Amino acid sequence: MDAVWYDNVPLGVNKIGGFMKQLSEDAQLSKIYTNHSICATCITYLDQAGFKSRHIMAVSSHKSETTVKPYAKKCPEMKKRAMSSALAEKITPAAKVPKNEELIQQNPAP
After folding, report:
1. Distance CA 97, CA 89 (A)
2. Do residues 87 and 40 share a domain?
3. Taking the alpha carbons of 71, 76, 79, 81 in that order, is the dihedral positive or negative?
4. Which range of residues forms the domain containing residue 40?
5. What is the pLDDT of residues 85-103, one digit of tens each?
């Protein structure tokens, strides 16, 4: 029989609140992570992957889009190049500018 790795008992807010900190210390990670830092990182990655704020809100428990926006970190370099390419296509149609799809294929998202 497999060992039971969980208990079917309620956890207090202090226990849950310190879970990632304790896990980081126990695993001797180079950085102490908090529940909030993990949540913020997930929201940032979802935003960078192109998910709409309302969809991110469904999994993050945020109540408004304005509270999700601060997690949209600096625009990745690949996305900046794709935006630049899109603008260049519109203002210089005769120039040979790589299309957004070509840039994305050359630099896939992490």
Report:
1. 6
2. no
3. positive
4. 13-71
5. 888 887 776 555 556 566 5
Residues 35 and 65 both lie in one domain: yes
Q: In this structure, is residue 60 part of a structural domain?
A: yes
The DSSP-derived string for 26-73 is HTT-SS---HHHHHHHHHHHHHHTT--HHHHHHHH--SSHHHHGGG--
Question: Crossing angle of helices 53-60/35-48, nearest 10°?
Answer: 160
Structure-block tokens of residue 10: 């309620």
Are residues 56 and 20 part of one domain? yes
CA distance 46 to 34: 19
pTM, to two decimals: 0.53
Q: How far apart are CA 78 and CA 106, in angstroms?
A: 9
Examine the domain organization and report whether 41 and 65 are in the same domain.
Answer: yes
